[in-house]
């Protein structure tokens, strides 16, 4: 049975036993088994409509939640009630550390690295989901990311706005500005040579965008002493050149995330790109602290998307 099993082949009463509804365990991505993803598919959707839902019906929306640097995997559990009530399916990719070397923690955030195109990995995940769960809408997704996931989310928006029904960008520590004078990932000067496509600002303008952060999220990660030590260590080990120097420029944090996200909002506004900025009171750098704001933003867009 090398062919992937699809919900259209399985009787409704066997979907849970076949691990096709409810919590779906992490699955290695066929095109890059280093990367995996988990899903939550609300059983009630199939209980109501049966397996092999009529293709004329609106498909089940898909919310993709991308983890931060620490790779917490609780999102799939936290978001299950939202999936049931809305309804929608949830997909949570897992980009492990160490993909580009023993100290790599950031490669997925930058979209392109030595051995990874994380945007293409996500698109491959969507292709796999479309085969197994043809009732799920994988063509136009709702993307959420906090911290490192927020870095991924806004860069994915630049490259693939046509695949987004809405996006929530949460508290990124570093951002890419739509700046034709600086190379990726600081700016977008070399996007076409790196990715084989140009940035379509008109399509980006058509995507509902939320920027979200806690009002206490003002500290620089690690503090000034940490970044001084990092610079010293890199100097001792030898600095790179060319593209490596630009990636190094991207690496260092020199401001709090609240200032960073406001600067991103302002830079977009100069390009005519509108984003809803939600600053949540009493919250520092904590994904769960801003989650209600994120889901409040997304819920009407998802419901409208599915016709619920």
In terms of topology, how is this protein built?
Layout: E1 22-29, E2 32-41, H1 43-49, E3 62-66, H2 75-85, E4 89-94, H3 118-132, E5 141-146, H4 148-159, E6 164-170, H5 191-195, H6 201-205, E7 209-214, H7 223-237, H8 243-251, H9 257-270, E8 276-280, H10 287-306
Parallel strand pairs: 3-4, 3-5, 5-6, 6-7, 7-8
Antiparallel strand pairs: 1-2, 2-4
**Beta-strand fraction estimate:** 15-25%
In CATH terms, what is the fold-level topology of the largest domain? Rossmann fold
Distance, first to last CA: 36 Å
Helicity, in percent? 25-40%
Biggest sheet overview: 8 strands, mixed
Order of helices and strands: EEHEHEHEHEHHEHHHEH
Which segments are poorly predicted (pLDDT under 50) over 5 or more consecutive residues? 240-247
Query: Cα-atom Rg, whole angstroms?
Result: 20 Å
| Strand order in the largest sheet | 1-2-4-3-5-6-7-8
Short recap of the structure:
The protein is α/β, with parallel strands linked by helices. 37% of the residues lie in helices and 17% in strands.
Structural features:
308 residues, Rossmann fold, 8-stranded mixed sheet, 10 helices, 37% helix, globular
What does this structure look like?
With 308 residues, the protein is α/β, with parallel strands linked by helices. It folds into 2 domains: 12-220 and 256-306, Alpha/Beta hydrolase fold, catalytic domain (Rossmann fold, 3-Layer(aba) Sandwich), CATH 3.40.50.1820; 222-254, no CATH class. Helix content is 37%, strand content 17%. The protein contains 10 helices and 8 strands. It has an 8-stranded mixed β-sheet, sandwiched between helices.
